Amino acid sequence: MSDTYCKQNISTDTISRQDDPAHKEYSAVEPVPMNKRTITGLDMFATWVGANANNGTWYVGGVIAALCFIPSLYVTIIANPIAYIIMALVGYIGYKVGISTMALTRITFGVKGSIIPSILNTIQFIGWTAVNTFIAAISVSFLLHDIFNLPVFGQPGGNTTMLIGIGIMSILHLISIATGHRSVKIVERIGVGLIILLVIWETIVIFQQVSFEQILAWRPPPDKALPFGSAIDIMAAFSLAWTPAIAEFTRYCKSKTAATWMPMLGANVGLFWFTLIGSIVTIGVAISTGTYDPNNSDPSAIVSKLGLGVLAFLVIIITSTTANAINLMASGISLTNIIPKLKALPALWLVTFIAAIVTVVPLYIGSFLELFIVFLDYIGMVFGPIFAIVITDYYLLKNKQQNTSELNKKNGRYCFSNGFNLKAVIVWAVGVALFLLLRNTSFISSYTGATYPVMLITGILYYFAAKKTA
Fold first, then answer.
1. Which pTM was predicted?
2. Over the stretch 215-242, which tens digit does the pLDDT of each residue have?
3. Which among 325, 256, 203 has a CA at the least distance from the CA of 37?
4. Do the beta carbons of residue 110 and residue 419 sit within 8 Å?
5. DSSP 219
6. Is 225 exposed, middle or buried (0-12, 13-18, 19+ CB in 10 A)?
7. In order of start, what are the domains of the chain with their CATH numbers?
8. Contact 99, 295 (CB under 8 A)
């Protein structure tokens, strides 16, 4: 984002507020000085626990329950820490350089080449908004059923109720964005507290109906079983999805620990807990009903089956709203990085409108579960190789020396070839192709998954490609 763009449409009141370090918002490529940083380690721990304590995490826990309970624990223990180590490595770069995640890709892919990951980042955050909105709209449909006796999702006429729910959620998204990032943080923390209480409540209720021994002994029907490697890819992609947003926070951190260890710890705690609960309640519902359906990991369906009432649906709606406020803001900022003349507020409205349209798609094309897994595959496919290249470039090739004054120069250090680092772009394309080639092979899908092996191979390829011409 250029300095000219950053200076456009700023009122006198906004300028005066931006002189205050607590209110200043830095552009994507504008480094945050150390003396202007206000985020502590406790802030980062709370932020990333909250980021993962949401309905999407709960949902994916139910999806990997198709492995059986103990193997699903192994997947969570293996895949998530690796993903969050990667996130911490990128977070440290943001801390040291002081710029946003998408601005960091300018250093590796070039000033123009960074448009590629920026476009993908805009798409993925719109996608996550759609995922969370769909889940929340199901809760809205149950509320409308209880109040007005409208059909719920899955019943005849339920799609109409879902459309109403999607509309309600989109309005809530716009309202939450309009309140600003400080009020969003407050609401998010309240929502996380409520959903933690809900999860404890659900856990107690589910164990009143089924025993832990039954959960350990449960096996999915053969046609619903999920290969271990495929589950690794689903979980890795789910966790890696946060990496493109990490530097937006760590560039404001006061210390290295706050930028690395605390988000990594918070993310692991939040995700492990909520995937665990998602798996337990989904298996519990399968045992109590005699029917296993991965779509039953949807929190709204579980809340309905357990009879937890209106309050539980409201908690799901609130937490979806707060999570999506962050998703939409990240998506909108990425969009303004692609189109510098696009102002921030219209960009936020635009991505909110697009997300609402995307949310409607699963109602008419395939099942939500299938589209959800395809979406996760996409994230792992494109972002794994991107961050393998960024990490290799920063830690192994450039000795951690960066010049942020060159980020906006057309003929500067990061211009490369007409604005593109062709080596990075080509190696990234090879990484994506490798993911597509390997993910369905027998060994990969059964044991390791494709995401992390492809990231390792991509990093090695880029190291030697860049070293050769250095």
1. 0.84
2. 999 999 888 889 999 999 999 999 998 8
3. 256
4. yes
5. -
6. exposed
7. 42-243+253-469 (1.10.4160.10)
8. no
